[in-house]
Specification:
This protein is globular. It contains 10 helices and 20 strands. Strands 3-2-1-4-18-19-20 form a 7-stranded mixed β-sheet, covered by helices on one side. A 6-stranded parallel β-sheet has the order 5-8-9-10-11-12. The protein has 2 domains: 74 residues, Urease, subunit C, domain 1 (Roll), CATH 2.30.40; 283 residues, Alpha-Beta Barrel (TIM Barrel), CATH 3.20.20.140. It has 376 residues and is an alpha/beta fold. α6 crosses α7. Helix content is 27%, strand content 27%. The longest helix has 16 residues. This is N-acetylglucosamine-6-phosphate deacetylase. It comes from Roseateles subflavus. Belongs to the metallo-dependent hydrolases superfamily. NagA family.
């Protein structure tokens, strides 16, 4: 077995920060010891020690580094290499609505990537199937290939690469029954790209849907007499994704969601343009343009983001969240949502997935399953 490795600093444990040491061996955390400290001491104390947080988990990643999940080939490996440099230690490769032969081709390429982690890359835990089982009237930036769903089709796709999360519109015929079938088969279901009502959302949650895809975006909004899908989320959800780039969602709406949804967690919804200069990139069948910090279709529709999870953390702290709370929203809650009790937290026996940050919350080091990432 490899020799134990040690990292010293302010370690964020499930109980709070300690000034101490984290040791790992064989890919797992073997020891965490130290003296409890306050978050104020961590951020403003005299000791210039690094912060050690759980590695970030992003369940909605379309691309990065100039590559798009739907390309197939080695695209997912390149995407995982880009995001790990920003502290993401595990992710879900996210597909686009497309003809089924294109979705099958993408998942065929993703299968080997999910089975074995690429060196110097984040762990690809599986697939987030964002469509094609969505409302054609609320595509957002999704191509117009929405279709009816079936459990047999999902299971056939899952045989190509493990599907961990499925976005669907519950108001479409058969999708509420399908939600129950998918949950019984072990798939997590999210509500998204939907024109559904408040009542549709409530019933979908009762039928087993676990959360909402990029809350506020591509769903019916909140009105005091028609609460819509946003109202269902704010009133009833325990989990929901949100894109905290402060472009997709106004900071005031982010604050509303934080007060309403206990386990609101961050995703990037990142595209091939993440980590790249301004210009034109692919997003499934679409061509999108990165400029002024955003990614848009030719008609101006927001089309994913250029966000990375380290910036998501900084944005949350900038909104006034305590570091421990912000950390849970970029790691722990997503792990819990996927049923992973050995990721998204720093505890003995958990995977040695962690990120080392300076006091400005800039990434100084990343470890994935015990392997250090070269950030040079």
């Amino acid at each position: 077995m490899t020799e134990a490795q040690r990292t010293d600093g302010f370690v964020l444990t499930p109980a709070g920060f300690i000034r101490g040491v984290l040791e790992h061996q064989g890919g797992r955390i073997t020891r965490i010891e130290g003296e409890a400290v306050t978050e104020y001491e961590v951020r403003h104390g005299s000791q210039d020690l690094p912060l050690i947080l759980p590695g970030f988990i992003d369940v909605h990643v379309h691309g990065g580094g100039g590559r798009d999940t739907m390309e197939g080939g080695d695209a997912a490996r390149q995407i995982a290499r880009l995001h790990v440099r920003h502290g993401t230690t595990s992710l879900l490769a996210t597909t686009m609505t497309a003809p089924m032969d294109e979705i099958r081709a993408a998942l065929t390429a993703l299968g080997p990537v999910c089975r074995e982690r690429e060196p110097q890359a984040a762990r690809v835990l599986g697939v987030h199937l964002e469509g094609p089982y969505i409302n054609p009237g609320k595509l957002g930036a999704q191509p117009d290939f929405a279709k009816a769903a079936s459990i047999s089709e999902v299971q056939a796709l899952d045989a190509l690469a493990p599907i961990r999360l499925i976005t669907l519109a519950p108001e479409l015929p058969g999708n509420l029954d399908l939600t129950e079938q998918l949950r019984a088969a072990g798939f997590q279901v999210q509500i998204g790209h939907t024109l559904g009502t408040y009542e549709d959302g409530v019933e979908a949650l009762e039928r087993g849907a676990g959360g909402f895809t990029h809350l506020f975006n591509a769903m019916t909004g909140l009105h005091h007499r028609e609460p819509g899908m946003v109202g269902a989320a704010l009133a009833h959800a325990r989990y929901a994704e949100i894109i905290p780039d402060l472009l997709h969602v106004h900071e005031g709406a982010v604050r509303v969601a934080l007060r309403s949804i206990p386990c609101l967690f961050c995703v990037t919804d990142s595209t091939a343009a993440a980590g790249m200069p301004d210009g034109e990139y692919g997003l499934g069948r679409h061509r999108v343009t990165k400029c002024m910090g955003g990614v848009r279709l030719p008609d101006g529709t927001l089309a994913g983001s250029t966000l990375t999870m380290d910036q998501a953390l900084r944005n949350l702290v900038g909104l006034g969240l305590e570091m421990a709370d912000a950390s849970r929203r970029v790691s722990t809650y997503a792990a819990d949502y996927l049923g992973l009790n050995d990721r998204g937290r720093l505890a003995v026996g958990a995977w040695a997935d962690f990120v080392v940050l300076d006091r400005d919350l800039q990434v100084q080091g990343v470890v994935v399953e015990g392997d250090g990432i070269d950030l040079a």
